[in-house]
Write a structure and sequence with these properties.
Distance between the termini: 45 Å
Structural class: alpha/beta
Number of strands: 5
Radius of gyration: 16 Å
Shape: globular
Helix content: 25-40%
């Protein structure tokens, strides 16, 4: 069991590598296909149910430019798995190479406490929080395009822009009154 480190391998030329982490694999497969279908850049997509990754194939694994935790807002297990997996990342990843993607936010059975917990996790780690829907293929393609824009910056394929700069622009924030206890 080792930490996944962002700079322990050399990058491949004109290639971006992304790791999609989702415990239930509902949205993960369709998003991976949509990312590979985008022909603007060569994308290596790796899928995992949770972290840590197996040590056996560490030598053949490419450098991971962006780690995306996909959290299904209708499942508490999805959130708990993502929260447990975060501790297996090297702190260097939190300099613009991690983001959270929440799915099914429009679903009627979403508990607002879970949505607040996801936002709190993203704020505490200074990471962007993206919202995505997976109901139609157009929703999946739209999510893939937004994720691809973040991936290009995180992998260094956008000139004069760093992942840390993008992270400061897109990180999730909480209103000041969210941390205060309610006296109602």
């Amino acid at each position: 069991m080792s930490l996944l480190a962002p700079f322990n391998k050399l990058p491949a030329l004109n290639t971006a590598s992304i790791l999609l982490v989702e415990s239930e694999e509902q949205f993960q497969q369709s998003l991976a296909v949509a990312l590979v279908d985008e022909m603007t850049v060569t994308v290596n997509v790796r899928l995992a149910r949770s972290l840590p990754l197996p040590v056996e194939n560490d030598e053949s694994r490419p450098r991971i430019d962006l780690v995306v935790f996909i959290i299904n807002l209708t499942s508490d297990l999805s959130f708990r798995s993502a929260k447990a997996s975060v501790k297996y990342l090297d702190p260097g990843y939190f300099l613009g190479k991690v983001c959270f993607m929440a799915t099914n936010a429009r679903h009627a059975s979403v508990h607002t406490g879970l949505l607040d917990a996801v936002r709190q996790l993203a704020v505490s780690l200074h990471c962007p929080l993206l919202f995505a829907e997976d109901q139609t293929p157009e929703d999946v393609k739209s999510s893939a395009r937004r994720l691809l824009a973040v991936l290009k910056v995180a992998s260094g394929l956008v000139p004069n822009t760093s992942a840390l700069f993008l992270s400061n622009l897109t990180r999730c924030t909480m209103p000041l009154d969210m941390d205060q206890p309610s006296f109602d």
